[in-house]
């Protein structure tokens, strides 16, 4: 019987499916900095996981309080270049020791939503790439990314280079092989 499995009357969207673009991850403008670090992933992670010590080395987050746990709230003092310090309270969405830390933040009444990531990609036992970035989405996300993108990138770069220096020094102090600073 023709049309047996079809609606008898036209209904907007009946029988239609729409494929979402992308892999289902966060959408928005991506700002990222990557740097090679000559130290094992575990040493890099030790520096990242020690939130109390961020004030000693991290130029982007000059103060960090909280516990790295899924659903946990961190209290961070964000210091973007040429901007006043700002306290933010992101929620940890994912973390894996020696590998990654992700958090989300909602601002401007939900009009801006960000996903921040710190990721360690191990190249060899004593060499990694550290990626630091943010995906800025929401109704005003594109505007914020365009307005603040350069400063955000410079902040991510400063953090990445400071992490590199700190992790490589820690690795040398533990008797690690010569690093890029040697």
SSE order and pairing:
Layout: E1 29-37, H1 41-49, H2 54-57, E2 61-65, E3 75-78, E4 86-88, E5 91-96, E6 100-107, E7 112-124, E8 127-137, H3 141-173
Description:
With 182 residues, this protein is α+β, with helices and mostly antiparallel strands. The chain has three helices and eight strands, in the order E-H-H-E-E-E-E-E-E-E-H. The protein is globular. Mean pLDDT is 87; it is low at 3-20.
Give me some keywords for this one.
single chain, 182 residues, alpha+beta, three-stranded antiparallel β-sheet, disordered N terminus
Nutshell version of this structure?
The chain is of the alpha+beta class. It contains three helices and eight strands, in the order βααβββββββα.
């Amino acid at each position: 019987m023709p049309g047996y499995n079809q609606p008898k009357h036209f209904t907007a969207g009946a029988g239609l499916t729409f494929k979402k673009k992308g892999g289902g991850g966060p959408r928005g403008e991506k700002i990222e900095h990557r740097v090679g670090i000559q130290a094992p992933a575990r040493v890099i992670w030790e520096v990242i996981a020690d939130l109390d010590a961020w004030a000693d080395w991290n130029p982007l987050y000059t103060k960090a309080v909280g516990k790295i746990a899924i659903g946990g709230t961190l209290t961070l003092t964000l210091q973007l270049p040429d901007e006043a310090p700002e306290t933010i309270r992101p929620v940890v969405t994912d973390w894996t020791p020696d590998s990654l830390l992700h958090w989300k933040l909602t601002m401007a009444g939900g009009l801006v939503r960000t996903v921040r990531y710190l990721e360690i990609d191990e190249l060899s036992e004593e060499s990694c790439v550290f990626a630091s970035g943010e995906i800025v989405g929401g109704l005003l996300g594109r505007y914020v990314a365009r307005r603040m993108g350069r400063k955000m990138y410079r902040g991510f770069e400063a953090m990445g280079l400071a992490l590199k220096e700190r992790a490589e020094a820690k690795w040398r102090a533990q008797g690690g092989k010569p690093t890029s600073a040697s």
